[in-house]
Amino acid sequence: MSAGQSFVVDDGAGCTLGTALRRWNPGTSWSQVRRLLLGRYVTVNRVLCLDEARRLMAGDVVVVEPRPLPPPPSAHDIVVHFADQQVIVVQKPSGMISVRPPQERHWSRQRRDLQPTLDELLERRFPESSRSRGKERLYPMHRIDRDTSGLLLFARSPAAHDELVRQFASHRVARVYYALVRGGIEAQTIRTTLVRDRGDGRRGSTKDSSQGKHAVTHVRIRQILGEYRELECRLETGRTNQIRIHLAELGFPICGDGKYRGPMGQDPLPDESLSPRLALHAAQLGFVHPHSHEPVQFETPWPVDITTYLDRLKNSLASK
Q: In what order do the strands lie in the sheet with 61-64?
């Protein structure tokens, strides 16, 4: 099997990744496929995949990379900023799923541990919160994309969960993200109606306000780095992929975003940034503590992978 091979799933939808790799490369043994996967050479939709039993969907892009990718994040990459009997505030690393999807929860622990999720690792760190007479006691209050880093909030009791649900519903939870884009975007408030399928199978905005959900993002400029802009995006609503969609539809897709690259119906805008990953970070989180009723605020800077990248941009500008 040659490095750099790329495959798009069409008539192989529904089969496992291991089966597909053998089908695309006749004569490849199962042991060779497993060495590729466990050696971190295979991505699905630009995300490392170690699981030979993953079911592929139509349109999935599978690539055999020329070099092994970094290992997936582990428990050591999680930073707990605050924990008491009511809430946990944690910083998720890029590359980790926030919550295990329902269709994967029956997997064996060995299979799940190939690419652990944040909720499962927190349950192990705080075992007294994870189960109580068979009921879940660790409640994720919101989620961020796999490739996004930053702050997330979990409730540890039903009472805390219910109070925080009310705060999210009334938009009293402050959530600010940092994003990096290319181009001369201006400070503004973006208001659209988001739907699950904008017409090409992806989430996006619709002009029919009777459909979908209202979405509002407030954007301001943090700094200008040549042709790039570092943004502060404050969520008024928190729809799935909201910031990524809003910026891409304006013509300013986030650096490193391989999914949302521009408005529907137009050719995808190229990403020439060489960003090491999706340049989006949940940097600030504020809410009223459900037990003390005191306002609490947390803030965390860009992780080292993006700060290193930003330093390279600054050094490049300084040398011109």
A: 6-8, 61-64, 42-44, 47-48
The segment(s) of the chain belonging to CATH 3.10.290.10 are 6-64
Tens digits of residue pLDDT in 86-114: 999 999 999 999 999 888 888 899 989 88
Tens of pLDDT, residues 190-218:
999 999 988 877 899 998 888 899 999 99
d(CA 232, CA 221): 6
Return the structure tokens found at 224. 């200008």
Q: What value, to the nearest 5°, has the Cα angle with vertex 24 and ends 21 and 27?
A: 85
Task: Identify the CA nearest to 148 among candidates 68, 244, 262.
Answer: 244
Rounded CA separation 130/138 (Å): 5
Residue 107, CB-side half-sphere exposure with 13 Å CA sphere: 21
Assess if CATH 3.10.290.10 describes domain 6-64: yes
- Whole-number Å distance between alpha carbons of 304 and 311: 10
Catalytic residue selected from 51, 60, 119, 145: 145
Question: Looking at the chain, which residues constitute the CATH 3.30.2350.10 domain(s)?
Answer: 75-318
Region 75-318: CATH code? 3.30.2350.10
Q: Are strands 204-206 and 213-225 parallel, antiparallel or unpaired?
A: unpaired
User: Known catalytic residue: 311?
Assistant: no
